[in-house]
Hints:
Elements: H1 2-23, H2 29-36, H3 39-68, H4 72-95, H5 100-118
Amino acid sequence: MAGDGVCLGGAVHDFMILGASIRRKGKSLAEIARTEISPLSGRSRAIAILFIVVIALAGLGLVVVNALAESPWGTFTVGFTIPLALFMGLYMYRFRKGKIAEASVIGVIGLCWRFTSAEKSPTPRSRMRSPSRRIQ
């Protein structure tokens, strides 16, 4: 298959960057370029990494939007888990600093409660997007 080589090449590339980062005490690729080559190369590498990440996120965002276009359950899942995750983060950071186990229990209970209550109230058909409105 054509995609197998791309996946293998990406895995090798990521592993090499991980190895270089570990050898330099966890520095990022931009920091390695800055110390090993020059400050200008470090800045240009940081900008290049930023653009690559933005383009990758845009592509992934398009995939997620198209996947959720016909799925009220998927939209519901994302729409509930993001606020729950934000609450858990605030709980660990502001309300009860460092209490990871408590926040995890709250998250599991919140997900179980919401998913069991979602079965009782299905999304009306009028709120579902039609396949013709898919983003391309």
